[in-house]
Amino acid sequence: MQLLAWGEGFHAECPNHACRRAGLCQASSIEPECAPLWPEALGRRLDDMLVGIALSAFRTEASRAAIHARLVQAFGPDPQAPSGKKRSRSAAGTPG
After folding, report:
1. Distance of CA 30 to the CA centre of its chain
2. What's the pTM?
3. What is the distance between the alpha carbons of residues 91 and 4, in angstroms, rounded to a whole number?
4. What is the pLDDT along the chain (96 residues), one digit of tens a residue?
5. What is the DSSP string of 43-88?
6. Residues 6 or more apart from 66 whose CB is under 8 A from it?
7. Alpha carbons 25 and 48: distance in angstroms, whole number
């Protein structure tokens, strides 16, 4: 968002003194006082970018899960990984 605002030169017109002084948008979202500076098309572009980032993260996570599933299928589960099963104290070798 800050890069888009900088590219459009909003920091020079921004009502926020910190933005004007730094020469860069300081907001993490489109603040109400900055909203009039943002044309609707640029707001849609920002929304599209955020959707793209979310889809990319989702795709990366799905790819990692698929690779993990293939490795487990090929080589079996990691013998050092916790099984998730709770053992009773007597089965674990501790008196109970």
Report:
1. 18
2. 0.56
3. 61
4. 788 888 888 878 888 888 888 887 877 777 788 888 888 898 899 899 999 999 999 999 999 999 999 999 999 887 777 766 666 565 555 554
5. HHHHHHHHHHHHHHHHHHHHHHHHHHHHHHHHH-S-TTS--S----
6. none
7. 19
